[in-house]
Design brief:
Immunoglobulin-like; 6-stranded antiparallel beta sheet; 4-stranded antiparallel beta sheet; 18 strands
Length: about 240
């Protein structure tokens, strides 16, 4: 069971901090996410546009955590580079201001925890682009979630992907849907249920097996026509469970 918890409220913020603080001072400015420090200077046309490193801090106690075995921070985007610390321990460096990335924080957790994110939108040679006709807004501008999963779970740390790869192949009016699932800490006692639902939530195809790959068939599929705006949505999901 995957639980997603919103962590967007009450982050302490300060510009010009490039070293993770040991503790949270209430003299800092408190903000809610999504947040950027260039909300004004990035668009006022003046010469005050600031680029550099800023720090975001958030306290998180163990008693706030949902019941689970592994805990991951899901950063929907941090512009442009990020360093993530929990209780002073450096867990991740990420370059790229427009992509999701996740950090497993389980082994760094204590009873009381301080999450620190150093976000940097200064010019560098690692992050593309550095020249464009838009402003490089620095900050945690798309928000942060906490993902709670069992020890055996669908991998969420593969380059921002959800660990589920879906490839549809059309044969006339029939769709062959190939599904590849990346499992962490899986074993032979697990089964995976693959289900495709239509736009109304009705089951269109389903199978269950111990394999991480599956093929499901959809008959009489309705093709999307972009010009006409006729849309038929299908959602694909899978769940893993232990055999008893």
């Amino acid at each position: 069971m995957r639980i997603v918890t919103d962590l967007n409220r009450k982050w302490a913020f300060r510009k010009g901090v490039s070293v993770p603080p040991a503790e949270l001072s209430h003299e800092w400015t408190f903000v809610n996410l999504p947040h950027t420090w260039n909300g004004i200077d990035g668009q006022d046309g003046g010469a005050d546009y600031w680029r550099g490193t800023a720090c975001y801090l958030r306290e998180l106690s163990r008693e706030e955590l949902p019941q689970g075995e592994r805990y991951l921070l899901d950063f929907l985007a941090v512009n442009a580079s990020a360093n993530v610390y929990v209780n002073g321990k450096h867990l991740c460096h990420h370059d790229g201001g427009y992509s999701d990335f996740k950090v497993d924080i389980t082994d760094a957790l204590e009873d009381k925890n301080l999450i620190c994110v150093l976000a940097d939108n200064s010019e560098n040679e690692r992050v593309y682009p550095q020249r464009a006709d838009f402003t490089f807004y620095g900050g945690l501008y798309r928000g942060v979630n906490l993902i709670t999963v069992p020890a055996a779970h669908i991998d969420t740390e593969i380059d921002g992907f959800p660990g589920l790869y879906v490839t549809p192949v059309l044969h006339g009016s029939v769709a062959e849907v190939r599904i590849d699932t990346r499992i962490v800490n899986g074993d032979s006692s697990m089964t995976i249920r693959y289900t495709i639902l239509d736009a109304d939530g009705m089951v269109e195809a389903e199978t269950e097996s111990g394999e991480t790959q599956a093929v499901l068939m959809l008959n009489s599929v309705h093709r999307w026509h972009g010009k006409k705006g006729s849309v038929s949505l299908y959602s694909t999901g899978c769940a893993a469970q232990r055999r008893h």
